[in-house]
Structures are given as structure tokens and as C-alpha cells.
Design goal:
globular
């Protein structure tokens, strides 16, 4: 790994849920006994909207799993005084203070200076960091700007976690000074290094116990019931969140406490106080235990033969998985093909990652971009992004010549028109449509029964 990869400032969009909740109200009636965290994101590029902050989302997700409540997130500029002030004000109020950004070789990377100032400390060249820069990255000239990253507060220590893939100590550490933890800002490297702290925090027994209820109506229908149950259970936190452009539900409720008993009692009481017909069954993880869920879906299904024929066709194709790829575009039909391929690979216990191709449009919607990233993580896809241009098709042709033979494109009830297909000029590539015998009803029955995700930008209500 080269040093410049550590120094790169990546513009990166973190995977998000398909349905972005908008908080209308939240009923929090408890003074938390859990450890707390304060996140400080440092970087003018964030404040100028030149780079999107994804690190705080990533941290909040993992810290919650550790039973730690994030109480405040700040985004501040690359200014020594401001960094110092934020850290100084936070360190005595929160169990953990975590910063990201402002670490690098350039003039505006001043996080270490701000940290030192907050603790009345001075900077020094840490010998271990000097050694890393000199020997691991082969930068011999000590006047190189890279050595600025070895200059940390004297009171600070280095924390080397273990690489989750190799079990060996990580190549690069994070910095800790009392209860303040300092990480790089580039999401690619931040996420990798933050895993070390996360695993340390996860070793404790602190956890939240949370239940979710999915509701096919607006908040007004159950607002009184939620207010009542919030008063009856002062040790439980309740959240109410509407979603947009979702076929499966309109709002969801979170019920959270420190123990299963309180959470369970509050959930049952809320259901008692609410109309029974507003609740819907929804599965956030359709990819987990997918074979069992698929078999349950098939029971007493009138058109089960349609689904079985399609799966059998995919089993045949995936006998040679290295030759097969799926076109993903965010639509529900694309999600169906990905999920079916996931089922057939799970049945055969195939290893490796299924291949997919994303033909990126010039004006791709942000929701679609985020959805594609979510699908990559959820289904463990090996995705090649190809620009939907002649240059992109040329690159795809090179890929086809080396390994790809079949591209799966989901189109309900349609034969593939090869002449109008974007890949028609790619020689040697066979286009297959596994959903050609499906009706719209078949598709939505399958997708809704298994709660398959899709991007609302591309999937119209049928």
C-alpha cells in the first residue's frame, strides 16, 4: 500500500437505507445510563459541500451496536482554535470524544495541533510513526510533508488494532489522548481503522434492546396511542418515522430500552392501543436465510411453477458463475434477479461474489447511486461500473473477451430487443431475461412477499 492512498481525500457516498426516514417527532422519556459519545467532523471541504460526510453515519451505526448513545455531532472547519475549543468542551461531558478529518501532510491538516492545544500539550515526532513513514512507505527524505503526520501530542498514544482479514496488527494506527480518539477523514481508511475501536467497545456487555413495528398508515392514526404508551413506560424510548415512496409501509415505530422485558411490554401495549389492521409484516434482511424464506413463499402459491422455472434456469447458468453477470439499475426487476441469483447460489453453497454490472448514466439520481451501494453490501456483489457511453462499452467488450459470456437483464413479460439494448454492440455477449414469462403481478407478489428493496426513482407503482 502506498502513502498517497492514505493522503487521498476521497469523495465517497456511504450506503444508506432505501427509505430515508424523516423524523416528525420522537418520544424520549429517559435519562440514559449508557455511555455517551460526541463526534467532531473536521474539514472545510465538508462545510463547503465539496465532500459528503459519511463518517458520522458510519460511526453512529456502530456505536449504537456497542450500547453507546451519540449525543451530539459537530462539523467544524480546519482551524486550530476551533478544534481545540470543541475538544476541550466535549472531553468532560461525554464518555467518548471521536474526531475524524484534518490529518495529512498539507497546511490545513491541523487536528493534531488543535488536540495538543486542548490538553495544554506540545507536538513531537512519534518514533513509531516516523518508522512507518520511512520504512513502510519508503519516504526517506525527512523534509517531506508526509512526516507532518508523525507529529502528534506528546501525551497521545498510538492504538494498533487487528486487521479483520489477516489477524495481523493494522499497518496504521489511530491516536488516543485520554477519552479523545482521533481518526483520518478519508472514509475508505477511516472505516478500516475505526473498526479497531469498535471491536474494543463491542467487547463490553452494554446493549440497547430495540424493536420495530411497520405501519401502513400515517402518524395521525396512532399518535394518541404512542403518546399514552410513552407516558406509561418512562424507561422506554419511542420513535416515529414516516417514509416516502415505499410500497411496503408508510411509517415505522422504534421501541427501545435497556432490557428485553421493558421493550417487549411496551411493544405489546402499543399494539393493544392501536387499530390491529394498521400493522404490516416487513423484513429488513430478505437476503438472510433466503432459501427458507423462498420455500415459505412458494407454499400454496398458484403460479409457483413460474418462479421455479426461473430459478432452475439460473441454477444452470450459475454452474459457471465466472461467465455470468447481472445488470443492476435500482429497479424492482433488477432486485428480483439479484435475489433469485442469491437464492440459487445459497442452495448450491457457491463461494465467491456474484458479478454485476451497473451502467451509470451521466445524470444518475443520488438515490439510485446510494441504492446500488446498499445492494453491493447486502448481496456481497462484485460490481463493475460502466459508463453508458461508447467508451464504457469498449471497456465492457474487453471484459467480455476475457471472461463474461451472459448478462442477465430483468424485464417483466418481455423478450429482449437486442437491437435496442445498450450492450448490443458488445460482441460475444449473450443477453438473457429470466423474467420474460413473469407478469407484473408475479413480480410484485414476489418482491412484496419477500420485502425486496428497490429504488423508488426507477420503480413505478404497478
Amino acid at each position: 500500500m502506498t502513502l498517497h492512498k492514505y493522503l487521498i481525500r476521497n469523495i465517497y457516498v456511504r450506503n444508506c437505507t432505501v427509505y430515508t426516514p424523516v423524523l416528525l417527532r420522537q418520544y424520549v422519556t429517559k435519562a440514559t445510563k449508557h455511555p455517551t459519545a460526541r463526534i467532531i467532523v473536521i474539514g472545510d471541504e465538508i462545510l463547503k459541500a465539496q465532500v459528503k460526510d459519511t463518517n458520522s453515519y458510519y460511526m453512529c451505526n456502530l456505536l449504537y451496536k456497542c450500547g453507546i448513545r451519540v449525543k451530539k455531532i459537530s462539523i467544524i472547519s480546519d482551524d486550530v482554535e476551533e478544534i481545540s475549543k470543541e475538544i476541550k468542551n466535549a472531553r468532560d461531558k461525554y464518555t467518548y470524544v471521536i474526531t475524524c478529518g484534518g490529518i495529512g501532510p498539507t497546511h490545513d491538516d491541523v487536528t493534531y495541533e488543535g488536540l495538543a492545544k486542548a490538553f495544554g500539550d506540545t507536538l513531537h515526532y512519534h518514533p513509531k510513526l516516523v518508522d512507518i513513514i520511512k520504512n513502510k512507505f519508503n519516504i526517506i527524505d525527512t523534509s517531506s510533508p508526509a512526516y507532518k503526520m508523525a507529529q502528534i501530542p506528546r501525551k497521545a498514544s498510538l492504538k494498533f488494532g487487528l486487521n479483520p482479514n489477516t489477524g495481523e496488527p493494522s499497518a496504521y494506527p489511530y491516536i488516543a489522548l485520554e477519552n479523545v480518539y482521533v481518526f483520518p477523514g478519508s472514509p475508505v481508511f477511516f472505516e478500516r481503522i475505526f473498526q479497531s475501536l469498535y471491536k474494543d467497545l463491542l467487547s463490553t456487555n452494554r446493549r440497547f434492546v430495540k424493536e420495530e413495528l411497520f405501519i401502513n398508515t400515517t402518524e395521525e392514526t396512532y399518535a394518541n396511542a404512542l403518546s399514552t404508551v410513552a407516558k406509561e413506560f418512562p424507561s422506554v424510548s419511542f420513535g416515529s418515522y414516516p417514509v416516502s415512496n415505499c410500497r411496503y409501509f408508510k411509517t415505522f415505530i422504534t421501541i427501545e430500552s435497556d432490557n428485553e422485558s421493558d421493550t417487549g411490554k411496551a411493544k405489546r401495549r402499543f399494539r393493544e392501543l392501536s387499530p390491529a389492521d394498521i400493522f404490516v409484516s416487513y423484513d429488513r434482511t430478505p437476503h438472510v436465510d433466503c432459501v427458507t424464506k423462498y420455500n415459505d413463499f412458494l407454499r400454496n402459491r398458484a403460479r409457483r411453477s413460474v418462479y421455479e422455472r426461473t430459478l432452475e434456469e439460473l441454477r444452470r447458468l450459475y454452474r459457471n458463475p465466472e461467465y455470468v453477470s447481472i445488470r443492476i439499475d435500482g429497479g424492482v426487476e433488477s432486485s428480483i434477479v439479484v435475489h433469485l441469483a442469491h437464492i440459487c447460489r445459497a442452495q448450491s453453497r457457491s463461494g465467491g461474489k456474484p458479478q454485476a454490472i451497473y451502467f451509470k448514466q451521466k445524470e444518475a439520481a443520488l438515490e439510485t447511486e446510494e441504492f446500488i451501494k446498499e445492494m453491493v453490501d447486502k448481496y456481497n456483489l462484485a460490481v463493475s461500473t460502466v459508463d453508458a457511453t461508447s467508451e464504457g462499452m469498449t471497456k465492457l467488450s474487453s471484459s467480455v473477451q476475457s471472461h463474461l459470456r451472459t448478462l442477465l437483464i430483468g424485464r417483466v413479460g418481455k423478450e429482449i430487443d437486442h437491437n435496442s439494448c445498450a450492450t448490443s454492440n458488445v460482441s460475444g455477449l449473450q443477453i438473457d431475461n429470466p423474467l420474460r414469462d413473469w407478469t407484473d403481478e408475479d413480480a410484485w407478489t414476489f418482491a412484496s412477499s419477500l420485502c425486496l428493496p428497490y429504488s423508488s426513482e426507477l420503480s413505478e407503482e404497478k
